[in-house]
Amino acid sequence: MRRLISLFLLVAALAGCAPVDREKLTAEAVAKDPEFGAVLDKRREIASRIQTYSRELAVRRTEVEKKIAQLHKDLVDSAASVRGKSEEIKKRMDPDHVRLQRSLAETVNGLRMKREQRSSLGKQIALLIKSSKEVSPEMLKQAEELNRDLAALKERVRLLKIELLLIKL
Predict the structure, then answer these.
(1) What's the pLDDT tens digit per position in 52-89?
(2) N- or C-end of the chain: fewer Cβ atoms within 10 A?
(3) Which range of residues forms the domain containing residue 29?
(4) pTM exceeds 0.70, yes or no
């Protein structure tokens, strides 16, 4: 029994190492079992179909990859076009932006001047009060007007800043 197992293992080891001649094995198997030829024919047909499917897949993959590359190129081109158009149309807001900036600068300058006037008037009123002299109603009226003007100019500056913020693209 041991000899039989050893002989089987030796044959299996030698058979596993030797190159296989598929045609020779096929001829031997068909010679001993003629019905096995139909199974081999079926196997050949299936292997041929699988190979055909693989080639079809390779062709389809190539086509799809070309389409993807073209779509990517189209997307890049479209993005560049949109950016260009957007920049061009944004320029339409430039005159309004410049006008608002100029108006803001003028209003800030006017506000600064009114503050200086109010400060000067306030100092005059303070000196009169300090020297125990009476402040004329005209000076108080002028101070009140300057206070209203300052409030209006501050509101105008705030509005212009809001407008500039809102037109920003």
Answers:
(1) 999 999 999 999 999 999 999 999 999 999 999 999 99
(2) N
(3) 23-87
(4) no
